[in-house]
């Protein structure tokens, strides 16, 4: 049997595994990614890419490809029969997000674009994980190949192998949850009269979701209350769907040229732990839920974006393992919340009692036009409100700072700056190039007071933990010569529109350290620079 070694083994090349591989490749970490299938899946499964995931794709340098290949939708409409109940308007989030829309793109294209971000032939196909052992901090993975067997040893392994995860089974991690007792029919088809928008229509008989994609196709999802349990067709046909649509949808929908017809029974489950020793779970291997709101793939990709830099830095800088524990602590509650939300929405949207339907419809008509409610709901659907400030890791920073405006664990939106030569540069493009960004919000004239302290903090941190902290001076003033602000030989950027104040809530005199996945690590004041070093070194498990 062949025996090989790598630093990180990724099992499964779906969206979660590929997003993780993209990060590891960018950090130059030794990794392998295997998949049991001979080729990429052709199925369009996840269609909706949400704004926070687009931001993550921007961090990987892939957002342009996703925007070119997808179709942006700014609204989702909700009807009860022909009665318009509400419009969910994603432009509400434009104050804090550069992608105020959902990008509709078939999962097969998403996987293709993610794979294009890797060097050629990185995904090793027809490689099936069959066994997993951990001895003295080393993972031994048994893999069945087209032409034999291989044992891959690795420092870490990540099971991105989907809902029926072999990794999870081999680790004996419980995957608990329940069926939501709802049978769903699905088809990607052409409509005789195509639609222009994404809509969800309910009636007393069921629910219909329509999402046009790639110009000619429409995703049609149907829940027919009369075709449930034993009455659900064994193999769904277009005729079954058309019959149900005729009963539920207020106008005739004629379906033809199906690309994919499928069915599933909605359920939700979550792994009790996302980590066992040196093996992690991400994506559907760690959580599944019903497809309302199109959240699953988005959560999986964001799991990968949370774990990737932590694994890369742990391997490259020999960091303390506590950083890796923050993965479960941060990501498990996110999936837990999505499970609660989607189960609640499924119950609400499939309510059958007359009074229940009336109350739901009135509630939607009354609440959703309210701008605050709209913004809150859209931010939540868009996953822009994912926040890690509740974890003990984030809370550990509180004792090091008196500044409470922005908390460790808050999302960092993108911000545009200008160089003194008036070239535009975005915060996210800098995150692509550098490890941790250390923004020093500087004002003219106060540089001498804190420069020495900043210099000491950076040197103290980088010499202990690794060359990871990159200081950047940001000023709201227009300057021609960086030396007006700093003589530290650091980069200086101007934020003349004070966008970092509007989006990130920082003002001159603040300092913010930003994680590679665009969350705040620490926000403090320039007068507390010595505390910054202590806080960071503590976080990375080193001592001063
Ligand atoms: C009909 C439908 C509609 C959906 N719509 C949306 C949506 O709009 N938005 C959204 O966010 N989500 C949606 N989802 C959910 C989304 O498809 C999943 O959340 C997503 O595929 C999870 O990605 P993943 O990489 O974690 O797992 P998967 O996509 O399942 O990938 C797992 C990979 O692991 C490989 N693998 C499995 N076992 C092994 C093994 N033993 N060894 C090696 N390789 C292995 C598989 O071949 C596969 O390539 C939808 C799902 C369905 C079914």
Automatic annotation (TrEMBL):
<dbReference type="GO" id="GO:0016709">
    <property type="term" value="F:oxidoreductase activity, acting on paired donors, with incorporation or reduction of molecular oxygen, NAD(P)H as one donor, and incorporation of one atom of oxygen"/>
</dbReference>
<protein>
    <submittedName>
        <fullName>FAD-dependent oxidoreductase</fullName>
    </submittedName>
</protein>
<keyword id="KW-0285">Flavoprotein</keyword>
<keyword id="KW-0274">FAD</keyword>
<dbReference type="InterPro" id="IPR002938">
    <property type="entry name" value="FAD-bd"/>
</dbReference>
<feature type="domain" description="FAD-binding">
    <location>
        <begin position="6"/>
        <end position="341"/>
    </location>
</feature>
<dbReference type="InterPro" id="IPR050641">
    <property type="entry name" value="RIFMO-like"/>
</dbReference>
<dbReference type="InterPro" id="IPR036188">
    <property type="entry name" value="FAD/NAD-bd_sf"/>
</dbReference>
<dbReference type="Pfam" id="PF01494">
    <property type="entry name" value="FAD_binding_3"/>
</dbReference>
<dbReference type="GO" id="GO:0071949">
    <property type="term" value="F:FAD binding"/>
</dbReference>
């Amino acid at each position: 049997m062949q025996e090989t070694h790598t630093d990180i083994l990724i099992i499964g090349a779906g969206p979660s595994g590929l997003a993780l591989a993209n990060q590891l490749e960018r950090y130059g970490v030794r990794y392998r990614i295997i998949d049991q299938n001979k080729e990429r899946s052709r199925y369009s499964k996840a269609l909706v890419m949400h704004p926070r995931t687009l931001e993550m794709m921007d961090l990987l340098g892939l957002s342009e490809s996703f925007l070119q290949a997808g179709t942006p939708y700014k609204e989702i409409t909700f009807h009860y029969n022909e009665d318009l109940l509400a419009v969910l308007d994603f432009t509400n989030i434009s104050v804090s997000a550069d992608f105020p829309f959902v990008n509709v793109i078939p999962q097969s294209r998403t996987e293709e674009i993610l794979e294009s971000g890797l060097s050629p032939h990185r995904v090793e196909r027809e490689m099936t994980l069959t066994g997993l052992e951990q001895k003295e901090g080393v993972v031994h993975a048994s893999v069945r190949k087209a032409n034999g067997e291989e044992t891959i040893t690795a420092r870490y392994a990540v099971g991105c192998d989907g809902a029926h995860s072999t990794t999870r089974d081999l680790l004996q991690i419980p995957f608990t949850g329940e069926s939501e007792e709802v049978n769903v029919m699905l088809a990607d088809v052409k409509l005789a009269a195509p639609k222009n928008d994404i809509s969800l229509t309910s009636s007393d008989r069921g629910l219909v979701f329509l999402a046009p994609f790639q110009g000619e196709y429409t995703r049609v999802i149907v829940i027919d209350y009369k075709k449930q349990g034993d009455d659900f067709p064994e193999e769904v046909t277009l005729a079954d769907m058309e019959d149900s649509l005729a009963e539920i949808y207020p106008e005739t929908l004629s379906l033809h040229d199906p690309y994919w017809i499928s069915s599933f029974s909605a359920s939700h489950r979550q792994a009790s732990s996302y980590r066992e020793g040196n093996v992690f779970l991400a994506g559907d291997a760690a959580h599944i839920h019903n497809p309302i709101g199109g959240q699953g793939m988005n959560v999986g990709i964001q799991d990968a974006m949370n774990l990737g830099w932590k694994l890369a830095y742990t391997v490259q800088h020999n960091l303390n393992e506590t950083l890796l524990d923050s993965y479960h602590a941060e990501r498990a509650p996110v999936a837990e919340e999505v499970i609660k939300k989607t189960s609640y929405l499924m119950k609400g949207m499939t309510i059958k009692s007359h009074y229940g339907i009336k109350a739901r419809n009135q509630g939607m008509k009354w609440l959703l036009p309210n701008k605050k409610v709209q913004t809150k709901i859209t931010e939540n659907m868009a996953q822009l409100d994912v926040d890690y400030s509740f974890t003990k890791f984030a809370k550990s920073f509180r004792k090091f700072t008196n500044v409470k405006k922005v908390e460790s664990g808050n999302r960092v939106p993108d911000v545009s700056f200008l160089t003194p030569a008036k070239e535009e540069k975005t915060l996210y493009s800098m995150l692509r190039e550098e490890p941790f960004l250390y923004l020093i919000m500087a004002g003219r004239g106060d540089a001498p007071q804190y420069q020495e302290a900043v210099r000491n903090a950076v040197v103290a941190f980088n010499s202990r933990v690794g060359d990871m902290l990159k200081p950047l001076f940001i000023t709201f003033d227009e300057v021609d010569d960086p030396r007006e602000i700093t003589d530290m030989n650091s980069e200086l950027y101007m934020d003349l529109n004070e966008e970092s104040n509007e989006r990130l809530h920082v003002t001159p005199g603040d300092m913010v350290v930003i994680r590679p996945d665009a969350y705040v690590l620490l926000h403090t004041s320039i007068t507390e620079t010595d505390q910054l070093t202590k806080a960071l070194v503590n976080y990375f498990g080193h001592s001063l």
